[in-house]
Structures are given as structure tokens and as C-alpha cells.
Amino acid sequence: MDAAVTSAPNHAPATPPDVATAPADATSGGGDPRRTPRRAGQRDRARRENLAGYLFMSPWIAGFLLLTAGPMVASLYFAFTDYNLFDAPRWIGFDNFTEMFGDPRWRTSVEVTSWYVVIGTPLKLAAALGVALLLNQSRRGQGFYRAAFYAPSLVGASVSIAIVWRALFSDGAAIDRGQQFLGLEAGGWIGDPDRIIYSLVALTVWQFGAPMVIFLAGLKQVPRELYEAAQVDGAGPWRRFWSITLPMISPVLFFNVLLETIHSFQIFGSAYIIGSQGNACGPADGTLVYTCYLYIQGFENSRMGLASAMAWMLLLAVALVTAFLFWSQKRWVHYEEGAR
Q1: Is 138 helix (H, G, I), strand (E, B) or coil?
Q2: How far is the CA of 251 from the CAs of 125, 222, 241, 326, 336, in angstroms?
Q3: Total Cβ atoms within 10 A of residue 64
Q4: Which end of the chain has a smaller Cβ tally under 10 Å, C or N?
């Protein structure tokens, strides 16, 4: 019996016919050939969808390349050249930057712009937050009040409003007569180099509608249960504001601070119009903000190379301030878990 078992031929296990005769997939090395046309169809459909997306994006891409990226690269080159818009640019290296740092009017424009940013931006945000807190309360006619407070932001940056604002703060105008009625020192703000900047700040604060709407949206997201629990614990209005409202809307506050700070560095139209009463950018350079002096150098003095160097210094300053704000947000901005 044992001899019979040991002498039996050793046959390999039979291979199933369906496995032995299945042809190999030429593309995947052994996969199901029926999946290949399906994958090819999916790739074709994805390619057509991508092509359609790029076609819809092509106007924006062309505008970005022709109107943003292209001029930025050109201005970077002009910043190191002597270029007057009429003759070919001549390479001069860092001479534009050296002249810019030694220019007293350039330093004045930096001081005026810094003063405007430091004073105007917090006042504007404070007004926007205060009105947003009032509009967040349930009362009749909320829609009308919201539209009324937002309306100045729609027309505040226009040339006509800047002209009206200059007329209001001129000698003998409405603001001047109001000061006389209150027993204050008379005299228009427009002709005073020390006070004209405050008329510009007042115009900026008047345009608080856009950050107000953003604050209002953030206030709507604060849970009512937090205020109810704080009231039960005996917290007053100011305590609830500092301990609940501000921490909960801190991401919205950070967004508004960042956006309004960048906008303040870029102010030009209202400063140029309000200060252009016989002298561009205010008496004794009272409203000589940075962009106003950049405009004077580039288009009135035809020194486009120097203006390009000034523009890149402004970009660097805004980038540094933005980086500082992003660094500081770790200390005072509170995000919900997983929302960052």
C-alpha cells in the first residue's frame, strides 16, 4: 500500500479553464479589459471639463497677465531705470532708492500716511463695530437702518463726495459755522495744514458701511446661549462685550483690521481732491499721503522710474504690516476648534 502511494505520479493541480485562457490586459498588465474604455471615457470627460473651465477663466487670466502681472514686472524694471515716459529707460541701478530715502517730501509723505493709518483705521473700525452692535438688536425698521448706514460706503469714495466734503470743511462753510456756534475757534480745516488731515480722517470714518456689514454678520454667529448664561452669572453689558462678543468675533475683527489697514495705505482720490485747493495734496503738504506724492513724481514730474521705486517700497511696507498682523493674530484671535 505504501509502495503504491509513493510510486503514484506527482501531477500538478489542474488550472481552471477560465483562469488559464483569460487574456492579459495590455494596458494594466492583467486587469479586466472591459474597464479600459470606461477609464478612457472618464479621462476624456475630465479633459473636456477642464478645457471648459479654462475657457471660462480665460478673460480673468488674460486680464491678470496684461493688467496686473505684466505691469508689475515692468514697474520692477523701471524702478532701477531713469524713465520719463517719453525717452527709452536708462539703467541706473539703486539711484532711485537712494534719492527717495534722501527726499524730505518723501519722508513727509511717509509720516502723513502713517498718521492717517494709525488714526483713521481704528476710528473707522470702532464706528463700524458700534453701529453693528446697535443694528444687531431686534427692532422695527432694521432693514432701513442697515441700508441707511451702508449707503455712504457706496458713494464715499467718489469724486463728487470728496468735492462736497472739501466744501463742508472750507472757510465759512457748515463745519466752520458749527464751530462758531459752539464757541470754538473759527477757521476752515481745508486751509489749515495741521487740521486738514482730520477732515480726511472724518471722511474715512464716515465710510464705515463695509466693515459694519462684516461685523454684523459676525455678531449674528455668536450663540445667544452664551449671553444668557453670562446674564445668569451676573455679568453686565461691558463684561459680556469684553468676555463674549470680542473673543467670538475676533476672526471677523482680524479680517476687517487687515483689509482696512491695506486700504488706508492705498488712499489717493479723496486726499488729492480735498487737498487740491491751489496746491496739490494740501497746504504745506497737509494731505501729502504716499500715493499722492507717487502720483506727483510719476505723472506731474514725469519721473516714472522714481515713481516705480516708490510703488515697490509701498508694496514692501504693506507686506511687512500684513506679516506682522498675521503673526500677532496668534495672541488675540480665537478660532473655533477645527475652523482654522
Answers
A1: coil
A2: 14, 12, 15, 11, 10
A3: 12
A4: N
**Helical spans, DSSP H, in the chain:** 2-6, 17-20, 35-64, 70-78, 95-101, 104-135, 142-155, 159-168, 174-181, 196-206, 209-220, 224-232, 237-240, 246-248, 250-265, 269-275, 290-295, 304-332
Contact yes or no for 306/99 (Cβ under 8 A): yes
| pLDDT of 69 above 90 | yes
Side chain identity, residue 178: G
| Burial class of residue 331 in the structure, from the number of CB atoms within 10 Å of its CB (0-12 exposed, 13-18 middle, 19+ buried) | exposed
Q: Which 3 state secondary structure label does DSSP give 110?
A: helix
- Report which secondary-structure segment, H or E, holds 81: strand 81-82
The whole-angstrom separation of Cα 161 and Cα 135 is 25
CA–CA gap between residue 43 and residue 47 (Å, rounded): 6
Would you give the DSSP letter of residue 285? Answer: G
256 touches 211 (CB < 8 A): yes
Buried b (16+ CB within 10 A) or exposed e, 71-84: eeeebeebbbbbbb
Determine the pLDDT at residue 303: 94
C-alpha 27: how far from its chain's center?
50
Q: How far apart are CA 58 and CA 45, in angstroms?
A: 20
Give me the pLDDT at residue 6, please: 43
CA distances in angstroms from 162 to 136, 158, 285, listed in the order given: 30, 7, 18
CB 169 within 8 A of CB 179: no
The pTM (predicted TM-score) of the whole model is: 0.80
